[in-house]
């Protein structure tokens, strides 16, 4: 079936009784990429993760992780995977270091390797100064970072992250946004991430799948996905009292909102943007601000998921 993919889903279907959770989805994960899997609640994200981990048996289709069926070979593929849940299950009576030591034992690390990996993981997520504090004193962001440290402990080839940005502080968000590309780039780790935070997904993911009602609506590289609606425009806020002058000079296809004193001009590239702005300035129009809009992942996401399916 597959020879060079970290994960391969082929026409996978899953049902909860009469409810169809996945409707024949197909996708693959390449080594070293960060793959975003996004969609509204109930679209099948968690079901997909559980199938990937061998916890659910697909109703139809096939799944391979590291060229093996996860249902039959979880003991072989499990040590290659790091998993971070939306709600990290920490042992509140343990310190951060003790918590990671439990998992180093599960991975059967010798004491020297265990110490090295624990120190490294705590340092990478910025918790080295809190290793002797009990986890029940940690904030939500610190708990998320400790959970991420556990993911990295065994130097996994595949990391699965379920809503890692949910409810965290700005410092933890920044740390995760820096950490994931670094791990992917330096270790060749593949990252599968679900999130409702589309801005973060757009910033770090190489490829993105948009999912709704158990079906993949779009799957492509981030830049290709965001450029499929290639319209760009500038919003120019002008000083009030110039309506007549502006109405007579804006180009075809552009708009002027006189109640908000905003000119909206569609542009094809940077050159056309500069030409239009210069033309307005040359006409003596008094400008307050200029902002350019490019199609974002959020624009694409809502244009797809807001439609009836």
What is this entry, summarized?
With 309 residues, the chain is an alpha/beta fold.
Supply the key terms.
309 residues, alpha/beta, Rossmann fold, Alpha-Beta Plaits, 4-stranded antiparallel beta sheet, elongated
Walk me through what this model shows.
- It contains eleven helices and 13 strands.
- 31% of the residues are buried.
- It has helices spanning 45-52, 70-77, 96-106, 111-124, 140-152, 170-187, 198-204, 222-227, 243-247, 270-282, 297-305; strands at residues 7-16, 19-29, 34-38, 60-65, 81-84, 158-162, 190-194, 207-212, 215-221, 232-238, 255-257, 262-267, 287-294.
- The strands form three sheets. It has a six-stranded mixed β-sheet with strand order 5-6-7-3-8-9, sandwiched between helices. The protein has a four-stranded antiparallel β-sheet with strand order 11-12-10-13, with helices on one face. The chain has a three-stranded antiparallel β-sheet with strand order 2-1-4, with helices on one face.
- The mean pLDDT is 88.
- 36% of the residues lie in helices and 27% in strands.
State the low-pLDDT regions, or none: none
Might you state the CATH topology name of the largest domain?
Answer: Rossmann fold
- Shape-level CATH architecture of the largest domain: 3-Layer(aba) Sandwich
Q: Calculate Rg over CA atoms.
A: 24 Å
Structural class: alpha/beta
Percentage of helical residues? 25-40%
Strand adjacency order, main sheet: 5-6-7-3-8-9
Tell me the series of helices and strands, N- to C-terminal.
EEEHEHEHHHEHEHEEHEHEEHEH
**What share of residues are in beta strands?**
25-35%
- Arithmetic mean of pLDDT: 88
What is the CATH C level class of the largest domain, in words? Answer: Alpha Beta
Task: Report, as a whole number of angstroms, the end-to-end distance.
Answer: 31 Å
* Largest sheet, strands/sense/barrel: 6 strands, mixed
Strand element count: 13
According to CATH, the homologous superfamily of the largest domain is P-loop containing nucleotide triphosphate hydrolases
Number of domains: 2
Number of helices: 11
Shape: elongated
């Amino acid at each position: 079936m597959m020879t060079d993919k970290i994960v391969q889903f082929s026409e996978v279907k899953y049902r909860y009784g009469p409810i169809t959770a996945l409707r024949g989805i197909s996708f693959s994960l390449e080594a070293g990429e960060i793959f975003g899997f996004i969609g509204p609640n109930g679209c099948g994200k968690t079901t997909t993760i559980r199938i990937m981990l061998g916890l659910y048996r697909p109703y139809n289709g096939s799944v391979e992780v590291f060229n093996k069926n996860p249902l039959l070979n979880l003991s072989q593929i499990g040590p290659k995977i790091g998993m971070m849940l939306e709600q990290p299950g920490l042992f509140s009576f343990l310190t951060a270091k003790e918590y990671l030591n439990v998992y180093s034992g599960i991975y059967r690390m010798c004491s020297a390797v265990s110490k090295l990996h624990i120190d490294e993981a705590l340092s990478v997520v910025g918790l080295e100064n809190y290793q002797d504090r009990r986890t029940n004193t940690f904030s939500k962001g610190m708990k998320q970072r400790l959970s991420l440290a556990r993911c990295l402990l065994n130097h996994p080839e595949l990391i699965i992250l379920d809503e890692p940005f949910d409810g965290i502080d700005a410092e933890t968000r920044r740390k995760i946004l820096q950490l994931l590309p670094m791990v992917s780039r330096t270790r060749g780790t593949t990252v599968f991430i679900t999130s409702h935070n589309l801005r973060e997904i757009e910033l770090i993911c190489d490829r993105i799948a948009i999912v709704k009602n158990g079906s993949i609506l779009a799957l492509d590289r981030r830049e290709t996905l965001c450029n499929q609606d290639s319209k760009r425009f500038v919003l120019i806020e002008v000083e009030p009292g110039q309506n007549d002058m502006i109405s007579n000079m804006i180009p075809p296809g552009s708009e002027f909102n006189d109640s908000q004193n905003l000119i909206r001009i569609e542009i094809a590239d940077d050159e056309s943007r500069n030409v239009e702005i210069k033309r307005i300035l040359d006409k003596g129009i008094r400008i307050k601000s200029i902002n350019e809009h490019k199609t974002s992942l959020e624009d694409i996401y809502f244009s797809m998921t807001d439609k009836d399916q």
